[in-house]
Structures are given as C-alpha cells and as structure tokens.
Amino acid sequence: MAGSCLIEKIGYHIPLSATDAALLARLEEQEEPFRARATVRDIGQPADRLFVVRAGWFFSYMILPNGGRQIMHIHYPGDIVGIPDVAFARTSAALAAATPGRLCPFPKSALDEVFIRSPRLSALLFSIGMVEHAVLADRIRIISRMGAEARVTHFLLEVVSRLRVTRRDLQGHFELPLSQGMIGDAIGLTNVYVSRALKRMQGDGLIRKHAHGIDLLDEDEMKKRVDFEDRHFKIDTSWFPGS
C-alpha cells in the first residue's frame, strides 16, 4: 500500500510478506479527518474501535481529580491507537488531535484475522504494546525522580526516537507541533517550567528552538544527562514465529 505509514513502521522491524501487507492495508480502508484540538473519543466510551494514524499528531490523556490533564501517549503517523483498550469493554483514556490529522478507524474484531493468518505480525503488535508500556514506565521514572530540565530533555529524545522509526534519515532537526502546555501535561510541569527549561537548554548549547521545531545540537550529551535509552530503535524479534 503506497504511502502507508503503518506498513513503513511495521516494515522497520520485520520483513513483510504480501499477505502481511494486505492484512495491514485492510486496517486503513476507512479514513476520517480531524481538526486540531478535536476530541476523537472520550473516556468511558465503548472500546470497539482502534485507529491507525494516517497523518498528523494525536494524544491519549486522562483527566485528574483536580481537573488537570495527564497526557499518556503521543501518537504519530504509523501508530495503532487503542491497543491498551483491547482488553476492556470501555476506553480508559480520551483521544484528541494535537494537529490537523487523519485517522483510519477499524473494528477491534479486525485483529482476529491478523492473529489467525500472521503469527509474526501478532508477535510484533504484542511487542509494540510492550514498547509503549516501557516508554510510559520511563516517563514515570523521570517525573518522579528528575527536575524540569531533565524531564524536557528526556521528552524531546523520546519524540525524536519515535519519529525516526518512519523517518530514518531524520537528523537533529524536527518539527514539534505541541504547545508548551501539552509538553507539560505529558511530563508533569506547568508551561512556565517547560519554557524555563527550554531556555536553559538553549543556553547550554543543547538545543536551538525554531518557530515550530527544535534542533538537537548535542544529542549524545542530552542522552548522557538523563540516562536515555531508545526503546524504539530495535525490538527483539529473535523469538518471533518463523525466525
């Protein structure tokens, strides 16, 4: 399927057969556009659909008892959204658009054909779910143990590592279409603290800010400061069926 970010992402990790590509293409047969800041679905709605991100950035979030927002995951082109809710009848998190974008909805029941016809794809989807769990665990660690600058540093490294899965030639510059408030909601900071952290990082020569993007000027130093591990770079596929 030409131009499929999902197939490109999956193909980053394992070679795809014609059957695999056809199974994935069926998950993108329908498409819905969304404007920036639009709510796709709320917490507690029936968890009967998943989504492939076709274009744009989306995010899953929860509302805290004090009315604040905690962003759990950022979703990029090629991601399948809703895997954590497969085990539940109703959604545990809301989904919204960070930018204008397009989602391809498909019924949860469509996964059965993938599981039946492609054990390798099934193993990879399971592994990608575990990667999302590890990324979230990393973020919990930095929120509970690190200061504002380290949190922002880790978040930027997390974003660029995920973008490189479908943009393999991506160097240190990338667009960041998230407000400072959204970044803060992902790492437990106010937008003021995010702004201060970004200014200090610029002063240290680690980054350069643009109108809608970021240059990582010393990625190695950034990784060293926060003990960053790229969870997206390589998935262990040695145990997959047929390996």
From TrEMBL:
Residues 146-220 form the HTH crp-type domain. InterPro entries: cNMP-bd_dom, cNMP-bd_dom_sf, HTH_CRP, RmlC-like_jellyroll, WH-like_DNA-bd_sf, WH_DNA-bd_sf. SMART domains: cNMP, HTH_CRP. The keyword DNA-binding applies. Pfam families: cNMP_binding (PF00027), HTH_Crp_2 (PF13545). It is found in: Cytoplasm. Keywords: Activator, Allosteric enzyme, c-di-GMP, DNA-binding, Repressor, Transcription, Transcription regulation, Virulence. Homodimer. This is CRP-like protein Clp. The lineage of its organism: Bacteria, Pseudomonadati, Pseudomonadota, Gammaproteobacteria, Lysobacterales.
